[in-house]
Specification:
The complex is a heterotrimer. By secondary structure, chain A is mainly alpha-helical. Chain A is 80% helix and 0% strand. Chain A has two domains: 1-38, no CATH class; 47-268, MetI-like fold (Orthogonal Bundle). By secondary structure, chain B is mainly alpha-helical. The longest helix of chain B has 34 residues, at 60-93. Classes of the chains: A mainly alpha, B mainly alpha, C alpha/beta. Chains A and B meet through helix 1, helix 3, helix 4, helix 5 and helix 7 of A and helix 1, helix 2, helix 4, helix 5 and helix 6 of B.
Chain lengths: 269, 268, 341
């Protein structure tokens, strides 16, 4: 039986309901109202410092969130890789569970935790550590914390998988040669995890760029990442051509970084 | 593992547990809050009450959203399963020109940032009059679920020894009979898993829905709007119900897969 | 087998679903309205939608919040999903030259007596509301907008609306402009003043329910808010002093179907009945357009209403005409300001 027959139904539906809209969106950025090809929209976007500012803050926030993820996620994965098999199974299940819980729920909880009248501030005030609530919400700090929380599994799982695959005999060999624990870790263990770490970090970075829910909820309508900007350009202002241009640029950046990720992922396997 | 034993296991444990707590903190907060008797966001909750569940089930707007969410999830997950299942079989069992490109196309909705999918579908649907329609919503959700189905069933088909099918054919069975009696029963657990994933993905989907659904309210869309407008503990009840439902569904999947002896760990 | 049978079922199911929303254009069972949400929306439900549904059997589903931008996006998309859209006077006057709204059918509305300013070609002014200063009980009370914009002597976070029509004027008042000289609005000056307290603007709110919530949660200490959402709130204090009163209108988006429009006109009729307005006023302290309403308002809560003499005298009115002419250019500057936050 010809394989194409199996694939055709999905392909047709997809071309209509996915490929075509994406292509249409790409085309819209080059379309002028008078009809015909124009680069005016692209020029307008590059000239307007506002959009570049949003791009810059998106990159900055994504970078910080990625770093936070690495700092939190590496130790977590390391700890998990040292557990007994049953413990590992439970830990993996726990890490996977949030994937399936709606991101709205996860983000919402942070309002309860980080608000001025929330968990963290109330405890710190009660303990006398601070005299005034710390402003976590409705600024970049809250958004970064929320994003770090949501993206953590994406880093931890591949990293854990890579760590578990490391041949224990290599470490034993190093120990028997007289290396200290610190040396074993930094000279043997860590380098072997770098490809997976790099791939995971890139993945987290890509995902951060396109984040919408968390900045929208924890940002107080103030923290503008690209996705929030796109929301305004489509649903509020609206300026569809500019939305198209910005989406196209974001898509290109994403695809480039994704290609990088694939390469790193393959060398990690 | 020597690395672990020699590197301050206790400090690693502390950091590990702290990291895990950070990860799970939202869940640990939201569930108790839904049983809180307090009106405002209070944690720890002062008393036990089911009033927020009552508020949820008693509000016709939440029930409307529930109906839309459920029906869209049902339709889109079945559609994704049918289309994606066929496609996965075709991708794995046969070779044809452009196969890897087509497979990449099928996985694209997962790779392209969801916000871009949302913008593209908004603009595209607006052009053809599908914006804010029920059909458009179902189509959008189907597109988003298809990559999951193709991946899960792709692994299942690949792991299913093709020689069994070939034996059936060589014994004289028609292709249709082979599919019905040999292939599909074997794939059923994975198909069920793929279907559940698609269902949950649709039920939880909020970004594309926000752009494309018009005045149709799904549960997550309603939650998102309520979060911005008025923080009301009813949302915690909805959230807990979603969590409970998801965990039960996943538990079912795990049970079924364990029972049939296939643990698609690589799919995860 | 499962898959083939399902295939049949699914196609029937899909066909049914495709078909059903399209049908139903002949007999309208339900219309949708986009309104400001929160208690204001509940007041519409209590005061006007309930008698409407009782009288005609047609449901009205509310959605919120709305804004000029949202209306623009809807009309531009070609998919008109709401028969009624709530707009402030400034937004409405802008929407008309932009071609976003249709003229109302006043013969079909058949209104009870109304204040003349509430009866316009494109909008029915159903609600007088005020935009005022509010603050958390316990923080230093501001006496004027100059105080509100003074973050040194009145420290704390602010929340202001994301709509320029309800924000810029206050910045100018804070900068020393007197109410009668507010219009023509110096938008650049207002944005400069807002820029001074940029760091202390914690949230730009979209919906009227946000400012009281943020004040109660202590996320902000000072807020610009709709009056009805903060009067009578135990933890919040407010003043009508230097506040701005305005009429909120219901308009009909351009391109709506005839049947839905007919149904909408009947709902608008309900909004002109004084008894309905009195019921709405019980839910949220705003006043309707009927001259007979004041007699029906409860004495004890008189001070909460924006248009009673004692409150009206310390406020000033929104200038819709100015926004009609200059709205577009101000919107552009406002966009820049918002994206630069």
């Amino acid at each position: 039986m010809n394989g194409l027959a199996f694939v055709a139904p999905l392909l047709l539906v997809m071309i209509g309901a996915f490929n075509a809209p994406i292509l249409y969106m790409l085309a819209l950025g080059f379309w002028s109202k008078a009809g015909g090809f124009t680069t005016a929209h692209y020029a307008a976007v590059f000239e307007a410092s506002v959009y570049l500012k949003v791009l810059a803050s998106t990159l900055r926030i994504s970078l910080i969130a990625t770093v936070a993820n690495v700092l939190l996620g590496y130790p977590l994965a390391y700890w998990m890789s040292g557990l007994r098999p049953t413990g590992q199974l439970v830990a993996v299940a726990l890490v996977i569970t949030p994937f399936w819980i709606s991101i709205l729920v996860r983000t919402y909880a942070w309002i309860v935790v980080l608000g001025n009248a929330g968990l963290v501030n109330s405890s710190l005030l009660a303990l006398g550590v601070i005299t005034e609530p710390i402003r976590f919400l409705y600024n970049e700090l809250g958004v970064t914390i929320g994003m770090a929380n949501v993206l953590l599994p994406f880093l931890v799982l591949p990293l854990f998988a890579a760590m578990v695959r490391i041949d224990g005999r290599l470490l034993q060999a190093a120990a028997s040669l007289g290396a200290t624990p610190a040396t074993i870790f930094w000279k043997v263990f860590f380098p072997l995890t770098v490809p997976a770490l790099g791939a995971g970090a890139l993945l987290v970075f890509i995902l951060s760029l396109g984040f919408y829910i968390t900045p929208a909820i924890l940002g107080g309508n103030r923290v503008s990442m690209i996705s929030n900007l796109l929301d305004k350009l489509i649903n509020e202002i609206p300026r569809w051509e500019q939305a198209s241009v910005i989406s196209t640029l974001l898509l290109i950046v994403t695809l480039v970084i994704f290609a990088l990720y694939r390469r790193l992922d393959r060398s990690a396997a | 593992m020597t690395g672990q034993e020699t590197f301050g296991r206790r400090s690693v444990s502390v950091v590990g547990v702290a990291g895990m707590t950070f990860l799970l903190l939202p869940l640990l907060i939201v569930v108790p809050m839904s049983f809180s008797s307090a009106r405002a966001l209070a944690f720890p909750p002062p008393g036990f009450s089911l009033r927020w569940y009552a508020a949820f089930f008693g509000d016709p707007r939440w029930m409307d959203a529930m109906w839309i969410s459920s029906s869209v999830a049902l339709l889109s997950s079945w559609l994704a399963l049918a289309l994606g299942g066929l496609a996965a079989y075709g991708l794995r069992r046969t070779a044809f020109r452009g196969r890897s490109m087509i497979e990449a196309n099928f996985l694209a909705p997962l790779i392209v940032p969801t916000i871009i999918v949302a913008v593209a579908l908004y603009l595209g649907f607006a052009r053809v009059g599908l914006l804010g329609t029920y059909v458009g919503l179902v189509l959008a959700h189907t597109m988003l679920s298809v990559p999951l189905v193709v991946m899960v069933l792709g692994v299942a088909v690949r792991d299913f020894d093709q020689r069994i099918e070939q034996v059936a054919w060589s014994l004289g069975a028609s292709w249709l009979y082979t599919m019905r009696r040999v292939v599909l029963p074997h794939l059923a657990p994975s198909a069920f898993a793929a279907w559940i994933f698609a269902f949950i993905a649709s039920f939880d989907e909020v970004i594309v829905t926000q752009f494309v659904a018009g005045t149709y309210d799904t549960v997550p869309k309603r939650m998102f709007n309520e979060l911005i407008l008025e923080i009301n503990p009813t949302i915690t009840a909805v959230a807990t119900l979603l969590i409970g439902f998801t965990l039960v569904a996943l538990g079912l999947v795990a049970l079924l897969l364990r029972r049939s002896g296939r643990w698609p760990a690589s799919a995860l | 087998m499962k898959r083939r049978d399902f295939g049949k079922l699914a196609s029937i199911g899909l066909a049914g679903f495709v078909w059903s929303p399209a049908v139903g254009s002949a007999q309208v069972k339900e219309i949708r309205m986009i309104e400001a949400g929160g208690k204001s929306g509940e007041s519409i439900e209590e005061g006007y939608i309930k008698p409407f549904t009782a009288r005609t059997g047609i449901r009205c589903v509310r959605e919120s919040p709305g804004s000029l931008g949202k209306l623009r996006a809807m009309v531009e998309s070609g998919k008109i999903t709401a028969a009624l859209f709530e707009l402030g006077s400034g937004s409405l006057s802008q929407a008309i030259p932009l071609g976003l709204v249709e003229p109302l059918d006043w013969a079909a509305i058949n209104p009870q007596p109304m204040f003349p300013e509430a009866r316009t070609d494109h909008g029915l002014g159903y609600q007088y509301f005020s935009t005022v200063m509010a603050w958390r009980k316990g923080v230093k009370a501001p006496r004027s907008w100059a105080d509100f914009f003074n973050t040194r002597d009145f420290p704390g976070k602010r929340t202001v609306p994301e709509y320029p029509h309800y924000c810029l004027q206050f910045a100018l008042l804070a900068d020393g402009v007197s109410p009668d000289k507010l219009f023509p609005l110096d938008a650049d000056r207002a944005l400069r003043k807002l820029g001074e307290i940029k760091k202390d603007i914690a949230v730009l709110w979209k919906a009227g329910a946000q400012p009281p919530q943020l004040l109660k949660d202590n996320e902000v200490q000072y807020a610009i808010s709709w009056s009805g959402r903060v009067v009578g709130e135990p933890a919040i204090e407010m003043t009508f002093n230097q506040g701005m009163y305005d009429l909120s209108y219901f308009s009909v988006p351009k391109g709506v179907s005839k049947d839905e429009k007919d149904a909408a006109m009947k709902l608008l009729h309900e909004m002109t009945i004084a008894k309905n307005q009195a019921r709405a006023a019980q839910v949220v302290s705003y006043t309707g357009p009927s001259p007979d309403l004041e007699a029906l308002l409860p004495r004890e809560k008189f001070s909460e209403f924006p248009t009673v003499k004692q409150n009206k005298s310390v406020q000033w009115q929104q200038n819709a005409e100015w926004w009609r002419v200059n709205g577009e250019s101000v919107n552009k500057k406002w966009e820049q300001f918002r994206l630069n936050l």
